């Protein structure tokens, strides 16, 4: 190998940190937003951005786990909706005190995890194609959500969303959640499990032949996906303060887009949890930028789509260039 | 250094806008669903209404965010407006309840929030639009009257669980309950989709060949009428209609026995005129306290039937087929609501 030292080092850096192109795009978008509307870079505006897209960040990280094992979960939005209404209705039924909020959130997290396990059993146990199977389970979850709360409404206690939107020791609450998410990611990528998950995604047969419990590993990924979708639901409740049986359904494909923008291949076996979280912010910043840049209303959808494509291409080009 | 001067200049220009005071306002319009021409027309009319304020010496600048978004995406619309420093936000909301926190944030920032077309629960917002229940009642009244208070009717509704749909269902049920001779034989959902409306009507006609009336919402009416006209029962059934030019033309040509309650796309223009007057510090004669959330200002609901069909058709002459019959509060109309 006569590869120059620096290139190979560069290459290994990108292999170790596949989120770097996404980080670059994120910074570029922050700068572009700042130029188009200086106030969009204020402390308050950044806090607002995090508040709005924290749920999608969780959802994207959730999606990443199944994508790592070369599966996909098209029910994450429906799980989010289901957990949303379960928590909101439970809080109401239990009287709305601090204890009931805590209990309802715990039940919500449990419901999300169970939904994920159900997905895992359907996909892995019954050996169905994940893209269709989770599309179907998503419809089931939406049906359940509509049964729990047929019409959007039912407010949560003010303390709930005042906390989510408020500050602790002068620092916005959502920043603590972001730090928690970062710590979770930091810990998760250091586990043996993530290596096994990548191995399964890279080559399922090889992983099986080398003795890995492939079935269990994949079901666990779906369970983790459900768990984190439930956390996304708690963020949505914090930001919307109410129950809505279809609130998350449109978010499913955004979560997939965020995963890909973050440098994770849908073919599985490699990728980055941090990248997915960054991808969610990229999607948010693209929407803001299209508006701040003054795109007329008829063209906003078009411009957003093109901008997402450009971001995807930028990421791919950078990665390809480096790995040449 | 250069960047800093640019920012300073920008900041200065923002301040100068603010200090120009009563004569210059920036209003953000947010629309979270781009699935129909009605929404496009709604925004175009609002933009025209803003331009009309120039005659009064008031500059109303509108900034628009219109795209298919999920609820968080539309919350982001509002936050973007707040970051930009608008004076007011007018929103056609994707959820009745999900905006409470962000509207509270807007109010803290001194930004006026008005929702239109769909009511919101936030105490920090005002609803300016039609009463969806009264809208449905008007159509049902027409049908009951046309059938002389007796007969079998079916209803074709929009999306189950959607707040506007539920209010409309409550509206016609109330009216039909007041007419003991009217019997609702079936109610189905066709999701506000014209093709689904047509198919639902076909099924209903096959199942209940002896129905006398149909209560159907919005664009689904055009589909339902197509089924009626293709059926042996054509000419014997009265059904509610809709407000797009295509349908009005058909109505005139085939002399349909129809009546249409109007949900005008001009509601956002009306809301804009009300917003500007509120920004000028004017006070409503009667505070907006109507509706289930106690924050609504209901606009008049026009009605189209045989008595004014020709005028409506004449008014729509030369417009494209998807253009909806509309009405909006003019600046003078809106002013009449204020002290």
From TrEMBL, chain A:
Major subcellular location class: membrane
Any Pfam family: BPD_transp_2
Database matches in CDD domains: TM_PBP1_transp_AraH_like (cd06579)
Membrane topology: Multi-pass membrane protein
InterPro entries to which the protein is assigned, alphabetical: ABC_transp_permease
Cellular compartments per GO CC: plasma membrane
A molecular function (GO) term: transmembrane transporter activity
Superkingdom of the organism of origin: Bacteria
Transmembrane segments: 17-36, 42-62, 74-95, 101-124, 131-149, 169-189, 221-241, 247-266, 273-295, 301-319
UniProt subcellular location: Cell membrane
Record's keyword annotation contains Cell membrane: yes
Entry keyword set: Cell membrane, Membrane, Transmembrane, Transmembrane helix
Full protein name: Sugar ABC transporter permease
Phylogenetic placement of the source organism: Bacteria, Pseudomonadati, Pseudomonadota, Alphaproteobacteria, Hyphomicrobiales
Automatic annotation (TrEMBL), chain B:
Signal sequence interval, chain numbering: 1-20
GO molecular function: carbohydrate binding
InterPro entries in alphabetical order: Peripla_BP_I, SBP_2_dom
GO cellular-component term (any): cell envelope
Every Periplasmic binding protein domain range: 27-283
Tagged with keyword Signal: yes
Keywords: Signal
Keyword Iron-sulfur carried by entry: no
Main location class: other
Source taxon at top rank: Bacteria
Record localization: Cell envelope
Family: Belongs to the bacterial solute-binding protein 2 family.
Protein name: Sugar ABC transporter substrate-binding protein
Organism: Hoeflea olei
